[in-house]
Description:
Elements: E1 39-45, E2 50-56, E3 62-68, H1 71-84, H2 93-112
Helix pairs in contact: 1-2
Amino acid sequence: MPIDKPAWVKDKKVADDFEVIRTKPYDDYKDHRNDDGCYTLIKVYWDTHEIGVAVCDYQHTILKEFRGKRANDIYAAMFKFNDEHKKNWFRILDHAAYLGKELKKAEIALALGYEYVQE
Length: 119
């Protein structure tokens, strides 16, 4: 059954084959896939008011650490470095989305003075 243009869409057109796709709940354990390129560890540095992201290989070696004040600054620098140096760290888009979510959580924790715990 086709759905009309959503009410919240004011001045946009929708594609002829537009549809609303209902999502299933994501299971953090069953649905998770590791990214073959790397994994990341996130830490809040209270003394410098920065967030650090360690990029690690699967031999548990920290390859690089990126530090900054804001989530956007950090992931933009990480993805730029990844592309410029052809690292291929982020092969699964879920991993990049997870990184953005966790960095924003760390940024909010830092701003509000809350403890940050990486999921």
